[in-house]
């Protein structure tokens, strides 16, 4: 073989090798994030991760449904490394469609309680919660006594007939709560409870959680369900009309004497076809750190998921949420109930 030809082959091989190394190095410093969270405080958290690790975050923003649809459409060609969604029901739905992969991490095991994560398998855990919010009861103190709404179960009591308001029963926020109650009460009692809620409705379910709070303040409803961060937003609002709403309602963290208040999560998972898996796991572990937990929770007036981490939020304290008993029903078990509970909702006529 001619020497010049040998040299050309060797040079080509070297260029190819260097190119592969460059590509691998570039991949080592990239994380592709699909996120349903849209808070300015998250930006500071991402910047801190990049400063600390040198890993650049490329972010795609959409709502939960949009992210799940995109992942399904992209299939194995998806560039996504980490997926962030804002509800256990949505995490469970994506997981059931095979969009996540299990990971093992001693740091996550130590930081995040097992009940705030998917059920563990021999291969690891598919998704993890990194912040929590409480599903609280808001009531009109002029029409309803605190002792009458001390538990979720009491919302089905005939004493509250014509007073209860909620958003649609099939919304993930309610579906997660209802699945938890059914897990505790069993199928028969759980379905009877859902029927009681329907019988007590002041009007057909409609609107979002903030609409439920305002409906209680206006007198349309006597009691309603809402996520705690919607209450916090109204408490922190500079608008006089929002402050007026909060002056007319009271907040109850239910089941403090029994099972504890239902909590849901915003969480994350490593994508099924992640090209930067190690970076993805490193990012997941970063989210569990006290530094990131502060940003992650405060960004939406939520609570940290990591053990021993406290966030000083005046709005949370104002509603009595700085020290409440949270339920410990595993969200993995809740996820398994969702299809069954949706069928119950259909049977009892919960719109």
Compute the average pLDDT. Answer: 91
Q: In the CATH scheme, what's the topology name of the largest domain? A: D-Maltodextrin-Binding Protein, domain 2
Radius of gyration: 24 Å
Largest sheet: 10 strands, mixed
Report the end-to-end length measured between terminal Cα atoms: 79 Å
**CATH classification, class level of the largest domain:** Alpha Beta
**The CATH homology group name of the largest domain:** Periplasmic binding protein-like II
Coarse morphology: globular
Number of E strands: 10
Beta-strand content estimate:
5-15%
Helix content: 40-55%
Count of domains: 2
Structural classification: alpha/beta
SSE arrangement, N to C: HEHEHEHEHEEHHHEHHEEHHEHH
Q: Using the 3D structure, state the CATH architecture of the largest domain.
A: 3-Layer(aba) Sandwich
* Poorly predicted runs of 5 or more residues: 2-27
Q: What's the number of helices?
A: 14
Please specify the SSE layout and strand pairing.
Elements: H1 3-28, E1 30-35, H2 40-53, E2 56-61, H3 64-74, E3 82-85, H4 88-96, E4 100-101, H5 106-111, E5 127-139, E6 164-165, H6 172-185, H7 187-199, H8 209-218, E7 223-227, H9 228-236, H10 240-248, E8 250-252, E9 263-271, H11 277-287, H12 290-298, E10 303-304, H13 314-318, H14 331-348
Parallel strand pairs: 1-2, 1-3, 6-7
Antiparallel strand pairs: 3-9, 4-9, 5-7, 5-8, 5-9, 5-10
Helix pairs in contact: 2-12, 4-14, 6-7, 6-14, 7-14, 8-10, 9-10
């Amino acid at each position: 073989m001619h020497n010049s030809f040998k040299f050309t082959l060797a040079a080509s091989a070297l260029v190819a090798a260097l190119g592969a190394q460059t590509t691998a190095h570039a991949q080592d410093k990239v994380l592709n994030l699909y996120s349903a969270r849209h808070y300015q405080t998250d930006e500071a958290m991402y910047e801190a991760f990049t400063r600390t690790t040198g890993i650049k975050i490329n972010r795609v923003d959409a709502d939960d449904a949009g992210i799940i649809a995109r992942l399904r459409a992209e299939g194995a060609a998806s560039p996504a490394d980490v997926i962030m969604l804002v509800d256990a029901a949505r995490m469970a739905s994506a997981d059931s469609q095979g969009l996540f992969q299990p990971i093992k991490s001693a740091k996550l095991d130590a930081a995040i309680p097992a009940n705030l994560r998917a059920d563990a398998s021999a291969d690891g855990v598919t998704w993890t919660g990194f912040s929590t919010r409480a599903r609280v009861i808001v009531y009109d103190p002029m029409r309803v006594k605190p002792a009458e709404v001390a538990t979720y179960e009491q919302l089905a009591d005939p004493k509250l007939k014509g007073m209860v308001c909620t958003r649609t029963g099939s919304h993930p926020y309610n579906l997660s709560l209802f699945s938890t109650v059914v897990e505790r009460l069993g199928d028969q009692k759980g379905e009877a409870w859902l029927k009681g809620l329907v019988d007590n409705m002041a009007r057909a379910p409609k609107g979002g959680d903030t609409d439920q709070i305002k409906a209680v303040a206006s007198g349309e409803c006597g009691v309603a369900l809402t996520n705690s961060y919607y209450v916090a937003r109204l408490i922190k609002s500079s608008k006089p009309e929002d402050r007026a709403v909060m002056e007319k309602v009271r907040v109850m963290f239910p089941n403090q004497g029994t099972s504890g208040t239902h909590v849901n999560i915003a969480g994350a998972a490593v994508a099924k076809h992640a090209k930067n898996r190690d970076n993805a796991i490193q990012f997941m572990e970063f989210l569990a750190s006290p530094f990131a937990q502060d940003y992650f929770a405060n960004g939406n007036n939520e609570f940290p998921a990591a053990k021993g981490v406290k966030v000083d939020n005046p709005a949370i304290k104002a509603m009595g949420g700085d020290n409440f008993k949270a339920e410990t029903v595993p969200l993995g078990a809740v996820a398994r109930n969702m299809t069954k509970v949706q069928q119950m909702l259909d049977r009892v006529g919960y719109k």
